[in-house]
Amino acid sequence: MYQEITNQLAECIRYLKTAANLRKGAVVVLGCSTSEVAGGHIGKNSVPELGDALAKTMIDTCRELELNPVFQCCEHLNRALVMEQALLNQLRLTQVNVMPVPKAGGSAGAAAYKRFDEPAVAVSIQADAAIDLGDTLVGMHLRPVAVPLRMGEGETKVGQAHVVMAYSRLPFIGGSRAQYPEK
Questions:
Q1: How far apart are CA 41 and CA 129, in angstroms?
Q2: pTM here?
Q3: Going by DSSP bridges, is the β-strand pair 129-133/161-168 parallel, antiparallel, or unpaired?
Q4: CA-to-CA dists, residue 48 to 91, 94, 156, angstroms
Q5: Which has the closest alpha carbon to 143: 77, 84, 74, 70?
Q6: Which of 33, 27, 29 is nearest to 136 (CA)?
Q7: Per residue in 117-168, pLDDT tens?
Q8: Rounded-to-integer distance, Cα 76 and Cα 62, Å
Q9: In this structure, are residues 29 and 93 in contact, taking their beta carbons and an 8 Å threshold?
């Protein structure tokens, strides 16, 4: 039912990995308004079935590409982040006690919580890259320095939602006498 939409998301993830040169194990946050993807207004028309399809696609595609998927919850959970417990432990993040549901956490975050082997929720993260479906303000979860990324000349969409992607690069320090590796 949501094949075209999930294909669009998978294409975004693949493009982001290649264009940002994401390494194995990189952390990618998905901020997602299923309301916007379905053509509605953010926060007004949550679509749990669509959230599940998008969560499955994000998890499966990230695993295939050896990336770590993370899901941003909605503002009702202060934009907390759903991920595997092992990743939370590895990154030594501050865990919070909550189980996202569609009306408090968002449909994609709630679906990811159910789909992860051992789900956990963290208060914040500094990720390597992010995909924002429907202007959910996911940039707060990127480490400095954020680099915006577009797929081609036109506006990128997943379903009806506007897509913004970004990745982080290392900050340059040292001024005019500093030298930098070519990578």
A1: 25
A2: 0.92
A3: antiparallel
A4: 29, 27, 23
A5: 70
A6: 33
A7: 999 999 999 999 999 999 999 999 999 999 999 887 777 899 899 999 999 9
A8: 26
A9: no
